[in-house]
Design brief:
Layout lengths: L1 H8 L2 H25 L5 H12 L7 H8 L3 H13 L3 E6 L2 E9 L1 H23 L4 H19 L1
Antiparallel strand pairs: 1-2
Helix pairs in contact: 2-6, 3-5, 4-5
Amino acid sequence: MALKTELKRLTMFDIALSQTLATRTITDSRQSLLQSNGLTSPAEWFVLGIVCGNQNRGIRVTDLARRLRVNTTYITAMLNQLKQKGYVRTQPDKNDGRARLIVATPAGIQKMQQLEEITRLSLEKQLSLRVTSEQFEAYLHVIDVFAGITAA
């Protein structure tokens, strides 16, 4: 019942605008950090993060595109940028000789670890001025639920 009361208090426009502004605030801050650390966009960070997360087995371009809900042409462009920077490479798929897998290089893994630390510290600093730990944990739970709903 409390959710219905909250939804009635705000218009859908208000909710969408607040969500967009919150996302932009975090994204703008993160983008400057990423650029000052060698990545041209958050998209490169997302691609590198997923590749690093699949390091033990590698990941196909099609699976990477599906995971990020973009087309393979877009992923290929991101991968080409990351290859030029020495962060990813391709290797044959042992289970399918026709397929290629994307894997992170040691430099890519190191870059991802560095970015994790830098972005975490920045977010913690920003949030400590505005929200409590409990509020942030609730926020993370909600976006995780929404990500699961939209992925279905």
